[in-house]
UniProtKB/TrEMBL annotation:
This is Arrestin domain-containing protein 3-like. The gene is LOC109465821. GO terms for cellular component: cytoplasm. It comes from the Eukaryota. Residues 62-192 form the Arrestin C-terminal-like domain. InterPro entries: Arrestin-like_C, Arrestin_C-like, Arrestin_domain-protein, Ig_E-set.
Amino acid sequence: MGKLKSFVVTFDNNKDVYQAGEIVSGKLIADVTEGIKARGCNEYKMPSGNQNSKTLCCLCCASGPIELQAQTDRGGYCPGERIVVKGSVENNSNTRITKTTAKIVQTVTFYATRKSRSSHSTLSKTVGLGCRARLSENIAELVLPIPVVPPSELRYCNIIDIKYVVLVTAHIEGAHLNLKVELPFTIGSVPLTTQYGGPQPAYNSTTIPGVPDYLGATAPPLPPPPTYAEVTGGGVNIRDSNDSEYTMGQLTYAPKYMYYDWSQHPQP
């Protein structure tokens, strides 16, 4: 069973006191989000990689293919951490690639009995170098900070699905469709153990007994303490068509999620 994390009650009537027999109506907003522990999951330690290619055609002439490869440094992150994207572009065409971009895209899908509806939001974006015709270039480290967002999986909610991808795009000069790759990843609430280093060995075979080991390994940096912050994008108005003019209470709701503020801590 999931645990009720928080709830907000809004009454429809502009009253503080109700008499016996009166009908009390209102809204109850419950948050049953469960955190995802990235710690200890090997799949979250592995990079998320992908590649794609296309050939540009101009009338009856076709040039060589353009190939795009990219990967993230890990497969699981927490809000407040950063995603590092690396890759390469091999441009065998006669057309210049003006730039490469990377952005975090959040896709939220709402399910009804027979239909579904999806919305897409760009959470952060960065721009990298391009590539001239007939050349190859490495994509420099593109860093994407992760804002305050909900975790990827809502285990106790089967009508809402949340997914995250890094969308890497090679922008091709002229009237050509750009080349894209998607790198899916998971948002959790507990960072990976390897993010801060594993436990140090109890014995070092190169240490001479009785002599201090001044060159020994130092302790890994401690992670920042987790805090709760309002979700990126602000709150939403929860007033609906059934509300009357007497509806009172907090009518804007913004859920809070776990966030790690690395501004005062050295992130590896």
